[in-house]
Amino acid sequence: MIEIDGERCIGCGRCVADCVGSNVVVEDGAARVLGRCILCGHCVAVCPAEAVAIPDFDMADVEAAVPASESIDSQALLLAIKSRRSVRDYRACAVEAEALRMMLEAGRYTATAKNAQACRFVVVQEELPELKRLVWDGIDELLAQPAAEKPRWVKLYKLFLRAVQKDSAQDFLFRNAPAVVYVAAERADDAGLAAQNMELVAASLGLGVLYNGYLCRASDELPAVKEFLEVSDRPLQICMLLGYPAVSYPRTAPRKPGDFVVK
To answer: 222, 134 in Cβ contact below 8 A?
Structure first.
């Protein structure tokens, strides 16, 4: 629940004007919370007197926002977006804990529908060999089932399995990435938005990402993998291979003409 410090509140009404649920009023020169809210934190962010708090959240995590006058250079940001590439070859070095922390913070702070904040972020790096074993063993077991009992999705993985069994370096699902990042959420848009912000931070750190739909599907369909990832019954919406690229791209890639409608 929201708490307002009456000693600090100056009754300016900014929280009232910005509250999406109309749950705050100013009475007798101070703001007061009326009832339930979605805990979006706008009242905390907009208050000039630092009078608002959400005790259930980590208030020590609140910091001064970037002023509009010091916002990120738009041309530099656009060029960074145009420069991103799907990375399929990685250097043989681990991703540092601080880089992972910054990526996860970017995901945690991404907006979610109704402020649910219900994404679970899973990073597998130290235990990556175990994840690989569970995925490939699970696919192997399903492909060994009689044709009538075999799930349709797993048939697409037959060639992938043959290749990795013949040569472990020919791993279509994991390639040589040192880490895998999953986002589990009920809503695909929540997970996708979080992943996009995480990738932007990864790129700023010199890391590369490959969105891997094949690995995501297999991981979501195999109970042993979901148990290993500790995502319970939440669907896996996003899977990203992560690491330092072993290839560089000195230019952006061309795209089709934009399909834009501006009215």
So the answer is: yes
